[in-house]
């Protein structure tokens, strides 16, 4: 970091009091990632359904029925998948905890040697290394936690599978409903154009939010998500138009 950076460029305070306040409750759990992923998928898939049906020149009723079915079925499917994935991670974390606890009970010296080698690789040596091993292994929970983090890369923060699934479904439903609104409220011949514009803004907003997890500028991330979403919708529209001519509807 540039040593001349101003205090305004630092994300949090570094006084002893500020550090203690920030660390006292441990890492916080965020479900924004689940929301962003659900929102992108909801907007892309529902907009693709709308574009495909519009390309086939089917009725507004068909657009609303298929769009609503997509919101519920695909939204639930994605939420269930995210729930199952997070739960699988938690189950695996618990399995590793039980395994390490068993290993410590059966072969404590072997597990101490693992701690010793882990911290030796970090640059500890001599009395400092032995003291680090002693401090870590004197607490059973701390010993297991260090082994999980260092040996298996297990995350320190346990996320709720239910909250992850709920955040995904909510985002999928909210963002996915946007392409249907012009058809629902009778925009008539301009409904598809309105859906394109409205969903485009959704893609831009989600992309800008997604930049929180990358080093890309917000507008770069926004344009990337916009391009992906519009490409998916354009492809669906072309397929719908081709199928209309092929099946003769």
What share of residues are in beta strands? under 5%
Query: How much is the radius of gyration in Å?
Result: 26 Å
Unreliable runs: 1-7
Number of structurally distinct domains: 1
| Helical proportion, percent range | over 70%
- The number of distinct helices, counting runs of at least 4 residues, comes to 10
- Number of separate strands: 0
Which structural class do you get from the secondary structure elements?
A: mainly alpha
Distance between the termini: 62 Å
- Mean of residue pLDDT? 87
Shape: elongated
Q: SSE string, helix = H, strand = E?
A: HHHHHHHHHH
Biggest sheet overview = none
Structural overview:
The chain is mainly α and 249 residues long. It has one domain (30-244). It is built from 10 helices and no strands. The chain has helices at residues 16-23, 32-55, 60-106, 108-121, 126-137, 140-151, 161-177, 181-184, 191-210, 218-247. The longest helix is centred in the middle third of the chain and has 47 residues, at 60-106. The model is unreliable at 1-7 (pLDDT under 50). It comes from Hyphococcus luteus. Its main location: membrane. One of its GO terms (cellular component) is endomembrane system.
